[in-house]
Amino acid sequence: MVVSQLLAVLDDLLATDPHDLVDRQRADALIEFEQIARRLDAARARTLAVFDSRRACAADGYPTTTSWLRAQCGSSRGAASSAVRLARGLRDLPLTASALGDGRISAAHAAAITGLLPAIPLQRLLETEAQFVTLAELWEPGQLHRYAQTVRHAY
User: Fold this and answer.
1) What is the pLDDT of residue 34?
2) Half-sphere exposure at residue 23, Cβ-oriented, CA atoms within 13 angstroms
3) How many whole angstroms separate alpha carbon 47 and alpha carbon 68?
4) Which of 40, 42, 117, 131 is the residue whose CA sits 20 to 30 A from 102?
């Protein structure tokens, strides 16, 4: 499976001493790590969305995906809840999911956009999703989150 290959690459990466790199290599690595983290967040969210929609947590005796994540992955209540909320939201917002998968936005950006779903009907959000993704590409997550809160309250 691809995940085992990824783990092997991570083992190699962790065996590399950052002291052996020059500053430009370290800077480039940090930028690449961010892209990898974003894309990994997208892959995790896609898998979690399917796991959640199939209620696969029940096979292990857990009533919710959040409780399963807490028990099986050691996630905090808040982190597990946020991960499930993001996964469910990305399932409905393809442009946001694609932007996260491409590494153009972070999971925090995506959470700000998907967080609009309870307050704004899906069809309306789909009509404006491209604009939110564009803002996410330009703004820091906190700025996008504040804007999304303003939109949510205005709606």
Assistant:
1) 97
2) 0
3) 14
4) 117
Handedness of CA 147, 98, 88, 140 (dihedral sign): negative
Contacts of 36 (CB under 8 A, 6+ apart): 103
Residue-wise DSSP of the chain = -HHHHHHHHHHHHHHS-GGGS-HHHHHHHHHHHHHHHHHHHHHHHHHHHHHHHTTGGGGGT-SSHHHHHHHHH---HHHHHHHHHHHHHHHH-HHHHHHHHTTSS-HHHHHHHHTTTTTS-HHHHHHHHHHHHHHHHHS-HHHHHHHHHHHHHH-
Q: What digits encode the pLDDT tens for the residues 72-101? A: 999 999 999 999 999 999 999 999 999 999
Tokens for 11?
Answer: 């083992």
Which of 63, 65, 120 has its CA nearest to residue 88? 65
Residues of the chain with pLDDT under 70: 1
CA distance 56 to 50: 9
